[in-house]
Fold each of these.
Amino acid sequence: MSSHAATHHDHYFVPSPSPLPFALTASLTLFVIGLIQMIEYGQSMPVLFFVGVGLSLICIYAWFWKIVTEAEGGKYNAQVDMTYRWGMGWFIFSEVMFFGAFFGALYYARALSLPWLSGEGNNLSTHLVLWPGFENTWPSNGPGDIGGSFQTIPAWDIPFINTLILLTSGVTLTIAHHALKESQRLKCILAMWATVALGAIFLFYQVEEYIHAYQDLNLTLGSGIYGSTFFMLTGFHGAHVTLGTLMLIVITLRLMKGHFTPDSHFGFEGVAWYWHFVDVVWLGLFVFVYVV
């Protein structure tokens, strides 16, 4: 919500029709097609990828500008504020289900599929028919040594450092929120930039981790079930950290322009909810992907 939210309006604000949702969907489709070309077919400079990224950024900027203009123009009331809160809550719930599916895939592969394929319990016949030499070991690159042998990334190296970084970012974001509610804008802005910096440092270390995995450990997307689940979970989480960092930058710039008040700042709160969600997901990743 804006610092100029008009709580006195009796009518619910309905925005005018916009082509931005359709345009952003089309842009993201081009982005995904280009990403597939890059990953599956080895194209180093896929045109569709860069076109999709560029158009998506333009659509996002235009959409943000439109919402900020509406908010600062006093078009939102308390009912709109409640709608945003419900919408953000359901969005984060959908993200919980999204990551839940991938955590479920990790659990199924490790706790159910591997014992079944190795013949444990009453599955000896299945083991003998499918892969007589298959053993229940984790991490597993599957039958036939798919992708070759590889090494895993130690939990108490970069992953642990990144855990401390994200936990610290949650603290600085909370400090910023309390500072905003106490009308300490400078303190709030400084704490927000600290949060942005920590998010960027996290992403830097994750890129370093991926480079090390591919170049030195032979841990790739092709490294059987472990490699696919590892990069699926950590990669999607990294994408969410990237999005969250961009959102934090937008909110910080708005704070510097004087937006938000101690009593009306849901735009800030919504991003804070999202960032704390990202923190919690990482804790699950750290435990179930790196440690256990």
Amino acid sequence: MTDTSTLQGEGAASAPTHLNGVFLSEKSKLFWLALWTGALTIVTFGIYRFWARTRLRRYIWSSIKPGGDSFEYTGTGLEKFLGFLIALVVIMVYSGILQVVLDFIGYSLFGEVISGPNSSMDDAVIHIGLTFGAGLAILPLIFFAQYRARRYMMSRTRWRGLRFAMDAAALGYTWRAMLYFAAWFVSFGLLTPLVTFRLEKYMTDRMWYGDARFEQTGQWTALYAAMKHQFIAVAVLLLGAAIIYFGQAVALGGTVMIAGGLWLIFGFVYYQVESFKYLTAHKVLDGKVHFTSNASSARVISIFVLGVVLIAVLVVGLIIAFGTLFGLFALAGSGHDVTGVDRWAEIIAGIGLGAGLGVIFGSLVALVCIGAFVIVFISAPILGHYVDTLRVENAEPLEQIHQRAGDNMVDADGFADALDVGGAF
């Protein structure tokens, strides 16, 4: 839907003053697309997933139509596959070097401790420390992959024939993200708004639509309002712990802590939605075009909960149906000439084997279906809610934006694929 503004001269309509986000996706088409691409991914032992994700992105992108004009995804499965291979080699080399360094630290610097009288305990502590260090050492690759994944998707997205793009600045994002992660860790999460705002600003300030640059404005302290439910949830959790410790009321305290845990989950979702709304409202394109979002955390949670319940019912139903069907086939194949206890035992064993095979087969079918169900009932509806509640304000300057050169990325979003980061679809 596109809303038009006042007339510019007699009888001539000007460009629309704002554009409403529109998400038009047919669940049946999306389900069958996700189903057969998921099945091919399993049959090919995961190799087809690069082409599967490409096909899904093309369909999802074409379903997003701000102002009636759909997005276009131009990425290919082959470049994603080759990018994954490149990223895999880099990660393997990095992991090998990391392992050599950790071994040197563990067996050279701590060699005397490990061989001491308390070697078993000290050895366990050191290995835990080295494992934690290895986990931290992977973080730079994860942050690097996050930036590269967004840059790749931007470079392969068009709207109204104009390319999106992002500057090559993944290394700068990586070391900043490491510093902000350290700040978040030592502050016990209290600096979450700072981390969210600064990292998003770094990315947004390097994004382009055609020859027009995006800019992230606003203040990071404004995001604390989005954390209110997390603060309340922590207070409820502390109250429950106090009731158990001081009041010796385990049942009451446990109930309060469960309520606090559920409230904390809601608080995380609330923060994600509200921070998205704030950051969206303070994004500017070419210094003129603005954006607003009316996304609802309650709606996002309801989509997720209903989707999980529906998927659980469907998956259990599939497994039971296949188990029953195979069991009936086994019963039909056993014949009806029943004589003696041994014959009954043979029939029961055959039915049990058939039902077991049916459950196994049903589980494989359910595994394929789960991916399709998650996309159709959770991921796509949540994305659709974000798109439908998005609005582009002061859209007239969009008509003055021109094309820019293409952005070739050798590794595509291979690091994101290898490390399983970078978002849905």
Amino acid sequence: MIGTGIGVGIVGLGGMGHLHARSIDELGGDVVAGADLVPEQRDRFASEFGATTYETHEDLVVDDDVDAVIVTTPNRFHEPITVAALEAGCHVLVEKPLAHTLESAERIAATAEQSDGICMVGFHNRHAGSMAMFGEQHARGRFGELTHIEANYVRRRGVPGPGSWFTDPDLAGGGALLDIGVHALDLALYTLDFPEITEVSGVARTTFGTREEYADPDGFGDNWDAEAETYEVDDSVSAFIRTADGQTISLEAAWATNREESMDFRIRGTEAGAQFDIGDTDIELLEAGTAGVEHYADTELTGDPSITGYAQQDEQFLSAIAAGRQPETNTIEEALLVQRVIDAIYRSSESGQAEAIEMPELEMAAETDPTTETERDPEPEAEASTRLE
């Protein structure tokens, strides 16, 4: 099997950590270690996977049995853990987004560039059946030139409860955009093959965070206490992105908004279009013709539902390690562009005007602030969320 002989450690033993651990196990990898501040999480992980567990990531990354590390902690702690793992000679898969701020993401990228280790970022929706089928059709030229993408990740209600790390700007770096909007944004940029971005315009709103009726109905808002907690992150974002080649992206992301829920992803091309729900197995192709009579042609493609984006992503990670080569997808460079667009959306919202994106060299980014998050933040990583991202 692909992962045979590769020892994997998980940092952050909540829901995402267990999801990755099960996937690695099924792919033949060895889940040998886990780290989390919470004793109960460590005990549960050790019981399920027979792994050695640690309180902090510092002990895990120097475990001789650990070849690779998967990071599933709150965003603020991605940098110190990823940097420590790479410097210890481990390969790393860090969950999205790359970091809680652009500056932190740049420091991760600078470390990864100097490291011999493989470093991937967890954007699993790229590997869903819908995107795999789109990619194959696009490679055949079916869509012509891609012109515009409508990317939606919108909930009618679904604000994580105040008191969770999701609504703490120091831990998350932002709200709905960094939590769920990042999936839609990454998928749009991935679809357009990470084009040169010339202009970003966006508005971030904080509207529903203190209203209990908009708490997440699936239980993640059960610690809701609007009067006792401060809510300072966005719960919805609207953005428009222009590229150097004239392609455009419209983005809607929301934890809560008074409209129907949507994970609708629409791709326009000069010859055909496509639409599907983000992360779904199926895709619909939209065309028009005049053969016989003027008509619309809608084609539905149905993929294998047993093949998930998470499993495909983890397989790519293990395959890259086994082959001793850098990954062809989910790269640090791609994740850094996603982070730059996110930063530009927030800057645009603050300035009230469109913002440009600068792309300094990674070495320059590292030199602007050589102090890592590990040095600035003495507190250890927080417990990973049990919410699936």
Amino acid sequence: MSYKKYYQRFIQAHPQTQHYACHSHHYWPDVTRDAMLQYWDDTARLVDDKWDMMFGQKVPKVQRLIADILQVRQADQLVFAPNTHELLFRLLSCFDWSAGLKVLTTDSEFHSFTRQINRLAEDNRVQVVKVPTEPFATFEQRFVAAAAELQPDLVFFSQVFFNSGMVVTELDSLVGQLEQCCRATVAVDGYHGFMALPTDLSALDGRIFYLAGSYKYAQGGEGCCFMLVPAQNKFRPLYTGWFAEFGALAGVKSQQVGYATDGYQFAGATMDLTALYRLQAVLELFVADGVTIAAIHQHVQQLQQVFLAKLDQLQHAWLNRQQLIVNDLACHGHFLTFRGPDVKAVAEMSALLKQHQIETDYRGDRLRFGFAMYHDAADINLHCLSKVSP
């Protein structure tokens, strides 16, 4: 099945481009344009009264759509923010740094988390232990062993690692092992998993924090990230804003700062909700058309197989199946990552491909090709590789 009908505006703007950077900058479905205009119209109609409508209608609707995708019961335990970094720092602000906060994570987390945790470690505010994800076959065993030894306050890892495509396929099992060996708060970066891999968090509901957003596979663009917050937790974020007490602003104030009794206990302050409108439009479109995450995932897996088959025919010196970071496509994210000879060679390859209107991206010595609903097998054309230097 072709899903190109949803993306005509972006495709028409780039008719000759093979866009394999969708794991970073995903095309938006056409419905998102109308959604942005609707936000403007609602703002003009309601002005300051729009916040009651947003929190009374829009936010609950999108919460429910996301909760259905993740198969969690309490949709109101989802909180929104412009980016996951804001949500992450709000979670970090719940801990007493003066007591020696201990964080267990990996060497393969996204830049915002890595940069922030490194900066805190520079000032000796936190003790950080990073477990290498490679070799992948022993990662979970080594990660649990590190948790047992460190006894961390916070454990943070990805559902799909951004620099390889490796998937933690049994989230329930890993979290269960962590709970048996330590009493840490567990947070999972689900950005490369949400709306890409079928994800069932029903067994983890109330046990983990889960962060993701709309910029990548959810296709709503930047500005609408979310965090699933365990119900009945005892946290009082130090980094907090007025959204965290929305609905009680006109009430009698106690001497202690109050928080919402649902996921909005982790809310911040005023944000542009245009992205929330876009995300709602995309998710409602897929529900109406019966487009499931399982169908999207199957489509992408088929594209990956076609891509690799065409790459096999070219027999490139290093851009080949043997250099895949993760070669088991049955438990793989929606992008393929190839290890090049060095950083310079990978940067040059990405630039050469761009000259032939093939958009990729790279991280160090790793070149990434992502696949999306707006690709068809017939779109994949790698003949230019026979003309570029190895």
